[in-house]
Amino acid sequence: MRNLFFASAGVAALVSSGCATTSPEARPEVAAPAPTSEAAAPGAARMALPGKWPGPYGGVPPFAQVKVDNFKLAISAAMDQYRRELDAIASNPAAPDFENTLAALEDAGRTYAKERTLYGIWGSSLSSPEFQAVEREMAPRFAAFEDEVFQNEGLFRRIEAVYQSPDKAKLTPEQQRLAWLHYTRFVRSGAKLDAAAKARMGAINQRLASLYTSFSQHVLGDEEGYTVVLESEADLAGLPDSVRAGAAAAAEARGQKGKWIITNTRSSMEPFLTYSSRRDLREKVWRNYVNRGDNGDARDNNAIIPEVLKLRAERAKLLGYATHAHWRLENAMARTPERAMELMEAVWKPAVARVREEVADMQKVADKERAKLKIEPWDYRFYAEKVRKAKYDLDQNEVKPYLQLEKLREGMFWVAGELFGFAFTPVTDVPVYHPDVRVWEVKDQASGRHVGLWYFDPYARPGKRSGAWMNAYRNQERFKGEVTTIVSNNSNFVKGAPGEAVLISWEDASTLFHEFGHALHGLSSSVSYPSLAGTSVARDYVEFPSQLLEHWLSTPQVLNTFALHYQTGKPIPQALVARIEKAATFNQGFGTVEYLSSALVDMKLHLAGDVSIDADAFERDTLNALGMPKEIVMRHRTPQFGHVFASDGYSAGYYSYLWSDTLTADAFEGFTEGKGAYDKAVAEKLRKSVFSVGNTVDPAEGYRAFRGRDAGINALMRKRGFPVPAAAQTKSQP
């Protein structure tokens, strides 16, 4: 039984900044058994063999065969098959042991997992009105099916027997870890509850699944429904050619050729707020974006949030935990909400202090220009860019012509070769779910061994959720023969005209490398059991490999070779690289406060217990108490916080990015203390101790094996340009 029950929308997805990932502790958005007559329909015809996709490379997702109206039948048939497989394990007359129970469990549900993967891809990337109708129906069914599995008493008794047997000591360390994983998952999902509590747990999970689906569909609806149409040249004032071209393409795609459209996604919003000199339009674009899910209409999410919080609090109490936050963090690296809060609070105050400095600098520029304004949230990026230029002689418009999406992709491949020995070759013999998607085979450079496939879906389109993320379509495993992984990276860049280079911002380039870090984590996996493979690790550890890879974007080797001017083909000038390095900690106050305010509100919402919460008021009051600068809003306001309210995925867990970044900053110093970013010995140690081991070892042990010690907060503070605290203040960092 792989992570199929723990992935948002059925796919192991990791989404950046965010990277909303699914972890072993996340509940699914979906679920319950279908009637037997429906389940008996020909649903699993997409599989050449039970649980196996057809085609080359050990099988590939059969996208060409997928029809939205067949999802219910296919999944229902797969559910029935999975039931039979689990019942065979539970009713086995032989005494429970690792092979006939836990290994058998790993081998069960393969067809169901693959159907859920296809379903999840449609939910995140091709969410048409027809699919959304199916999604609303399937959400509670999936949840009920999950509870049916975890409440299978016969199955749990066998798992418990293996876990508590003295013979467990004879198992390999990986097998012992797998026994722990399955046992704790079942217990944390209610396997030990009495019948009445189990029934209530099931009702809670089914209701939550429906609420999650509604929440995500509402946000997607607002992203597609609210745009800003630019009618004339005057509306384009200040915008560079690349932003104009993307806006023109967006308008043409919506049947408004000759106009320009700023869509309601981060990749469209951020460059507009950075460059547009039309303050009135900046405010309009900004309000569209920050009010997603909060417009008082049929897609408003404010009624969903308190119900979700109440249900989560009740579920936690049923399971014996003080709050949902305590339940979620029990098996994370942080272990307790208190430790996570301590880290966040240690960073919050210096970040806010830095924001005050940044705002003062921006206000001086505005006053010097006689703008007659006080900096507002829709002004922050615009004036920050002016300050960057004044302080560091660095203009993002000067950098962006060198940041071609395709060249940066080539740079990522080169880095993967240098650090992990991977080689990427494009393939065209596999189906894709959209013409924008391309596929590469990944091999080991030294041996030529096939490692896996990498799918790339870079562009925004209607029906695709915003942000960026990584998917694992298939986990690596070897306990019943070698099975290679299939991963994807998904972004929302604005597609330009045919033949034109797609230019992206430095922040988007960092996100591109971040998501590729998740992909490399999956591709590097070398374990036996799929439930332990790749990115199937603790929530506050999974962002560590991805955030770490961001550091390689700014290395001279990447910039000199792959940051090429889209018109001249010349490499980025060394003087410009030097200015980029000099400005490395610029605007860190904004970036940290924008993110950390969301993480603190998330944690405080889930520490509040079962009290009735008005989402808007709680957000406002909490930020006021924290001293949130009025010039900034949360990166994800509560009514659009899909990481937290579109699944359990990051609930009480958005702190994970900061926790992981403490590891990231310390780990990269491991390279710089050696021979530099491409130190082969350090890279091999990183691969061996972190990237390849999945969840076969405790993450804290894995990190110590790589670094020789625990990480502290000092490297993080240096990375962000904040004052390094006294040792007495850092006693319980990671």
Automatic annotation (TrEMBL):
Keyword set includes Acetylation: no
Cofactor(s) in the UniProt record: Zn(2+)
Cofactor note: Binds 1 zinc ion.
Membrane-spanning segments: none
Classification via InterPro entries: M3A_DCP (IPR034005), MetalloPept_cat_dom_sf (IPR024079), Neurolysin/TOP_dom2 (IPR024077), Neurolysin/TOP_N (IPR024080), Pept_M3A_M3B (IPR045090), Pept_M3A_M3B_dom (IPR001567)
Family in the record: Belongs to the peptidase M3 family.
PROSITE patterns tied to this protein: PROKAR_LIPOPROTEIN
Keyword Glycosyltransferase: no
Lineage of producing organism: Bacteria, Pseudomonadati, Myxococcota, Myxococcia, Myxococcales
Signal peptide limits: 1-22
Lineage: superkingdom: Bacteria
Pfam families on file: Peptidase_M3 (PF01432)
Entry protein name: M3 family peptidase
Domain Peptidase M3A/M3B catalytic: from-to ranges: 272-719
UniProt entry keywords in alphabetical sequence: Hydrolase, Metal-binding, Metalloprotease, Protease, Signal, Zinc
